[in-house]
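Checklist before submission:
- one chain only
- standard amino acids only
- sequence pasted in full

Submission:
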Amino acid sequence: MNDTRLTIILLAGQRPGVDPLASHFGIERKALVPVAGRPMLDRVAQTLLKRDDVGRLVIVGQAPEGFFEHPQTRWLRGDPRVETHDGPGSIVEAILGAIAARGLQWPILVTTADNVLLSNAMVDAFVAGAAGADIGVALVERRTLEAAYPGNKRTWLRFRGGAYSGANLFWLGGSGAEKALGVWRGIEQQRKKARAVLGAFGYGLALLIGLRIASLDQAIAIAGRRLGIRAKAVVLPQAEACIDVDKLSDHELVEAIFAARTLLPPN
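Returned file contents:
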């Protein structure tokens, strides 16, 4: 297989217990919640598999073969690029488990089944921006989102020069990524996670961020040096990149976005 092709981990699991969004629609699996008439997993997988540069797509979740029982996702079983990995436990454990079990090679792009507004333009911009990094994260600036969707509520990470919300796109570019994931797995396993984060990345970095002395790029660079890896934050220009479908209000917004797109005149 051509080594320049993308390997993608598509996270489609859910937290233990009943997922509120799935329950609202009377189904068990969040990844199969319909958006504009199609399951979320189907939308994201189609966007990715229509790309010429995708070599492998590994769907990770609990009992993932069950996703193919839905009539609108059954087609995934017949695509030779599609694989599955049963990934119980935390997100980091699921990612590391998939890498080991499926023998995945770097680099790896990670996204989620609820990232239903994902587009080729987002993937292109992120891959180009994250190139050369051991680990990369996609973000959207607050001004970008609020200009397009005023009043939308997100969790904002504040740095000198701006506030940012995470987008569900991650780049694992080399063995250094495994080191970073290992650190994060250790944080996930500790009860006092805030203290664990400070221990991993340093109180000095937390102070620089808290006082808004460090810019986003500076903070990412410091965290990377702390771990001995090269880390990048990629700020995407598309507001939709940070709108995932995690709750009913997100679902209503995304439904409205798709409805508005159907009303646009053809180019």
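Reviewer check: Strands lie at 6-11, 34-35, 38-39, 54-61, 82-86, 108-112, 135-141, 157-159, 162-172, 231-235.
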